[in-house]
């Protein structure tokens, strides 16, 4: 049986907070997929910026509430990989979007 999102999240969430986080991540994913399907890199800047800002804010929350993520566990490793991928992907996507916008304007 596959684990639920509740089992994978590193700290307990209320039902409302879980729904809000899920809706935000789903909306962000839809924006990224839509911009990627249009092959329009210049439209990727806002959602990619949101990705790396989200990674920074998650990192701040983990530091603020020390002990929330068990780095040695599988869920802690998956969570850390997700945050790193948000950070790296967001920065790379925003840089690509800025280059595409500069190419279009010149």
Overall mean pLDDT stands at 82
Radius of gyration: 16 Å
- The helix-strand sequence is HHHH
SS strand fraction? under 5%
Uncertain runs with pLDDT below 50, 5 residues or more?
none
- Approximate helicity band: over 70%
Task: Report the major sheet.
Answer: none
Question: Would you report the number of β strands?
Answer: 0
The tally of structural domains comes to 1
**Overall SS class:** mainly alpha
Number of helices: 4
What are the key terms here?
0% strand; mainly alpha; 75% helix; 106 residues; single chain; 4 helices
What features would you describe in this structure?
The protein is mostly helical. The protein has one domain (13-105). The protein is 75% helix and 0% strand. It has 4 helices and no strands. The radius of gyration is 16 Å and the shape is elongated.
Brief digest:
The chain has 106 residues and is an all-alpha fold. 75% of the residues lie in helices and 0% in strands. It contains four helices and no strands.
Secondary structure topology:
Elements: H1 5-8, H2 15-37, H3 45-64, H4 74-105
Helix pairs in contact: 3-4
């Amino acid at each position: 049986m596959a684990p639920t999102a509740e089992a994978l999240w590193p700290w307990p969430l209320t039902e409302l907070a879980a729904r809000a986080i899920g809706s935000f991540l789903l909306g962000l994913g839809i924006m990224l997929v839509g911009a990627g399907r249009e092959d329009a890199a210049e439209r990727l800047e806002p959602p990619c910026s949101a990705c790396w800002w989200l990674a920074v804010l998650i990192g701040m929350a983990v530091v603020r509430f020390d002990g929330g993520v068990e780095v040695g566990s599988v869920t802690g490793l998956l969570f850390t990989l997700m945050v790193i991928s948000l950070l790296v992907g967001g920065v790379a996507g925003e840089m690509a979007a800025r280059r595409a916008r500069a190419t279009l304007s010149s």
